[in-house]
Write a structure and sequence with these properties.
Pfam families: DctQ (PF04290). Its main location: membrane. Belongs to the TRAP transporter small permease family. Part of the tripartite ATP-independent periplasmic (TRAP) transport system. By secondary structure, the protein is an all-alpha fold. The chain has one domain. It has five helices and no strands. The longest helix has 41 residues.
Length: 175
């Protein structure tokens, strides 16, 4: 990486944001498990099915999935086909990796814009059984888009600034 002090500081800050995303997604998963335990207990022991669990599960799954996707972009483990990229010479491979990062950042920006539109549209619609605005569900899309834009955009900028110093790793070297 480039020998500047601000890039490691930015990387540490993004690592903290990633940790916060992981904590929120993990807490949502724990709440999901407990609520389904309550659903089973209510349905089969008390013979009274709690109807709000399904809607809460749908809401929590949105946050788990979208925050997990943002973490995957931060960790550079998002889905991708690297066969052709890895066959390129190193300078072209570097350019291809930066193009992918920029494309991810643009996709994140589109998610933010679309998510804000959905949030505005859903503010007056309430989620059944939970009595909260639909906006809370679409906030997951918007926040994921912002995080993807932040993670991929800053990684692309960092790679551009340190183009001569970093060497991309070839995945699956043994194949």
């Amino acid at each position: 990486m480039i020998k500047s002090s601000f890039l490691p500081a930015i990387d540490r800050g993004l690592g903290l944001v990633r940790l916060l995303c992981m904590v929120v997604a993990s807490a949502a998963l724990a709440v999901l498990i407990v609520s389904f335990g309550w659903l089973v207990f209510g349905r089969y022991v008390l013979n009274v099915t709690p109807t709000w669990v399904e809607q809460l599960a749908l809401l929590l799954i949105c946050y788990i999935a979208f925050l997990g996707a943002a973490i995957g972009v931060r960790d550079d483990t998002h889905i991708g086909v690297t066969l052709f990229r890895d066959l390129l010479p190193v300078p072209a491979r570097k350019v291809a990796i930066i193009i992918v990062d920029i494309s991810l950042a643009v996709f994140g920006a589109v998610m933010v814009v679309a998510g804000i539109t959905l949030m505005r549209f859903g503010w007056d619609t309430m989620l059944p059984m939970l009595d909260i605005p639909e906006t809370f569900r679409t906030l997951a899309i918007t926040s994921c888009g912002g995080l993807v834009m932040l993670f991929a955009g800053l990684r692309a900028a960092s790679r551009c600034l340190s183009f001569k110093d970093w060497a991309p790793e070839i995945e699956f070297k043994d194949i």
